[in-house]
Structures
1.
Amino acid sequence: MASPIGRTGTSGQSESSERRRVLTLEREAVTLVDRMPELLMEAARIASTVAQGIHGRRRAGPGETFWQFRQYQSGENASLVDWRRSASSDHLFVREREWEAAHTLYLWPDISPSMDFKSHLAPVTKRDRALVLTLAAAEMLVRGGERVALLAQMLPTASRNAATRIAETIAANANSETIQKSLPPNAGLNRFSGLILFSDFLAPVHAIRERLEGYAGNGVGGHLVQVIDPAEETLPYHGRTEFLTPSGSQRWVADRVESLRPKYQERFAAHRAEVAEMAKRFGWSLLTHHTDRPASEPLLSLLMRLNGSAQGYRWMSSSSDAVSSDDKERAR
């Protein structure tokens, strides 16, 4: 049995370690709050860059927007006839409106410690890029009439200040365990709602699968946006290199890191292939974005995928014709 002194020492070390962890989280939270206005401005700029037209579901139904004229059919109520249009023809015509109905999409950015990484090849951390993409996606979705929410953190809203509300919610809960985890939280979502996750998805595949199976099993459609620093994919270092865990508590030194590159790249590609196969099995999509590329690229590709997968979100990109063939191929 340990002596009382031993127990006291262990408790003191534990309390000291916990205090350091809390202070670290507090510093990260303060930094995140300070950065949020800048990130919001960047998100608004990107949303404006990826201009889109707001459209309906491209078929007749309840709504306020004119869709088309069609010929009157025997047995229909005479009040449906558009007499002004019919007066210029030998036929009776009915004015149809375009079906409009809002989807609900839940957004989740991974801002766990592992996302706070930026190599010499990229201008921003993965965390900042995931946040910007989340806020920009929220901005564009509500412009198109959709409802958005931060997964497990707020109720869906179609308000034009939805991105600001999401930013405030993240900032207010930046040091909570829910926000700090690298896997999306468990939450009950309605069938046919959508889920968009922004993360590096470098957690073990079985852990990702266990977390997402519940959503997919309930009929939730999902899109995974993998945010990766290019150095994580290529391992561009040479010579003696030291690697640290996100918390800095563990370190590993490679004498000739370039000798590990082929095997590392092989394992990285295999991990991504497993995640892609899992998403495919769920009927979800996977889009990879590197932080050395403009944030507008994955946002535009995401919009194209959303429009294609649902056969009629109420908006689509009006600039899709200008997308490169590579982007169009990735969007399929």
Note: The first helix runs from residue 4 to 49.
2.
Amino acid sequence: MTTPHHLTVLTGASRGMGLAMARQLLSPNRLLLCLSRQISAELQAQADAAGAPLVQWSQDLADTAGARERLANWLASLRPAEIASATLINNAGVIPRIGPIDECPPEQLANALRVGLEAPMQLTAAFLAATRAWAEAGWPGPREVLNISSGLGRNAMAAQGPYCAAKAGLDHFTRCAALDEAQHPRGARLVSLAPGVIDTDMQQQLRAGDPQGFPDRQRFVDLREKGLLSTPEGAAQRVLAWLDRADFGQQPVADVRDA
């Protein structure tokens, strides 16, 4: 790269809102790194056609320490002079078996917490450490971390213990990290943002839940039947617009539907 590029790191970019965000982020002026279980040939073709720098990793985010080390090493290989700004978007999440916690298979419970909470914490740690080193060496660019939360992190729901816990933890972790960054003269800005209700594979999974073990199933059926779900593309647009707000980071926990 001969001119500074905006750097964005995005997890969960292979489907749903994550894929929609990746498509909208593609630009000749942006270096986009996507971490997902699968690499998208379609996304790569779109990037090539647009002349947009794109790096895709097939990365199991349940391997949290491995993901952190990989990101740290990659960021250390970059030249800050070629980066105009740096952004991390922790979007990936997993809904395990829907039902009471005692019916959730142990491996699914562990995976949901690793992908939904531990991975964002580990990746944020790697991102903040690397970009703080840039800033301390005189790099002038802004640093932002956007964690994709959920209303379920702020409102309890039966049969959704692991997912609710992961998102609630993500909110509170963001608050803590924002306090840490506020101690630095040029600290990063962080927000944990609920994106609203979106017509994604997760919604399909919720609508397919067993009504006996998931008393709120009809609520999700009604959302679709009444046309109250956002498209992944529309939700992605609103989420990415949040990053451009002048007040980004002033409230570390927010909802895309906030004024």
Note: The first helix runs from residue 16 to 25.
3.
Amino acid sequence: MPAQRAGIQSVEVGFSLLQVLSASPGALMLRDLAAAAGMSAAKAHRYLVSFQRLELVTQDPGTTRYDLGPAALKLGLASLSRLDSVKLARQRLGPLMEQIGQTLALAVWGNQGPTIVHWEESPQAVTVNLRLGDVMPLLSSATGLCFSAFMAQPSAGRRHPHDRLAPLLKNELARMQKLARKDVPQTMTEVAAVLEEVRQRGLARVVDTLLPGVAGFCAPVFDADGHLVLGMVAMGSLASFDPAWDGAVARPLAAAARQLSADLGFTGA
């Protein structure tokens, strides 16, 4: 057997805390975080102090809960941006923006849902309160609807199952019901109908749902195995954005996503 390379055990032990946080749906109390990582609270606290100094972890002063910090986000975004599909997509956004004149973005599936990993704002576009690393809602954003629709397909889950999609949808639906939102699906039956329409059209759209006066489309990009690898997003003010399914924004966006899918080896419809 080849000799195992020497390493720093404390780094490996401490990393288990970051792994627990990355898999958690939200911030954690010290006792729960330590227990999930298999260490004492006192030991976990020492690691967390160092992680806070490095901005890998943050602690909410009100709740005392721990969560991933800005440095962890930067590492994650850097890793995601190195994916070939993201690189290829970024190369196409410039010409596409010139064609449609709207803000464009790329999203991939992260630990908490569809996550914005690249953003290019058109000079004439409306300013939107979105940032790199933002996780998009599943029911009120075109990005979320696109991922929900195409990840739910059997072909999208054979090799890369996303078992968390269904509970995430149910949790978000419950939140929308508490807020009495009438501009999103009200039941899981309605959710299923909306997602089926997205699959039939090959494109997701929202108008005046995510942000007032703003419309958006998201087109899916698939790899050679038929898995959804990213969403190409277009967003803009209704004053200048064409929200028609076959309009000046939807057609070029969908065509660019289809071409990128083909370049990645996808041969499906």
Note: The longest helix spans residues 84-100.
